[in-house]
């Protein structure tokens, strides 16, 4: 008995000592592959067709589907995707060194009906949704800002998008940026509100004084949908621009940690079967535990289901698992010594 107990304790302790450390998987980032869910009416602005009231999706390696939807009449999405680096996104502006190499969805805030030099609020909404609840995803932006120059009138105006977070229960944290700030608890804005179209340069003809806004914003919370209101800001650096439209086109991409997306509940059912066997001379009741049925038998059975549930939690792993293993090992050895001593007496 002592030998069996000793082996049992040693087996459990070693199992905990060598238990693997569970690590979260790396973030997955949308990288092209955007397809239409809904394609609304198209409007051509300076050679690019923007689709209003539309939605596009991209599927991550883990199978999570990310969606960007535009609504409200003043926001749109293009049929062509674009690298974040195409609008000046570069290493050092995002949460890691790979983000600027990703291909995001190309979106726009239009200026129809706006007066340059004053804030044009509530142009529409950008809605980001997921096929299942996610925790703490990251929104990446590239190329917020732009402007126009009209030599005939000396019109020089800069325009940019600002975002107001509409979904309650979510907070924001800036993980990397170039001329991008979180203002208060619910707004994303350029730090210097006179940006060019490119995050890596201030070269322009309309007297913009800062680069475009780029950066990574972590959206802290667990949810499957987040909404932003789009406002269009502008400033006149000379006379107001009159040569055309000053829409603000930019790029969106999203990162998700798949390890933080689901909570799996597993239900296990254990069936206990009591079997009665008739012998030639005596009758004996023998309890038997079985995990399968026994068809074509004269044995009578009764079944009592017992249900237990698990939330998918693992036993302690890594350093904590090893600590518990050592504790159990010490306790087991102590029990063995105590039993041995008792038997010796």
Please tell me about this protein's structure.
The chain is mostly beta strands and 345 residues long. The protein has three domains: 1-22 and 320-345; 28-260, no CATH class; 263-292 and 300-313, no CATH class. Helix content is 12%, strand content 46%. Helix 1 (2-17) packs antiparallel against helix 2 (318-344). It is globular, with a radius of gyration of 32 Å. Residues 2-25, 263-324 and 335-345 have low confidence and may be disordered.
Set down the secondary structure blueprint:
Layout: H1 2-17, E1 28-29, E2 35-38, E3 42-45, E4 48-52, E5 54-59, E6 65-71, E7 75-78, E8 82-83, E9 103-109, E10 120-135, E11 138-144, E12 146-150, E13 155-165, E14 171-178, E15 180-183, E16 187-190, E17 213-220, E18 222-236, E19 248-256, E20 266-278, E21 283-288, E22 300-310, H2 318-344
Antiparallel strand pairs: 1-19, 2-5, 3-4, 4-7, 5-6, 6-10, 7-9, 8-9, 9-19, 10-18, 11-17, 11-19, 12-13, 13-16, 13-18, 14-17, 15-16, 20-21, 20-22
Helix pairs in contact: 1-2
TL;DR of this structure?
By secondary structure, this protein is mainly beta.
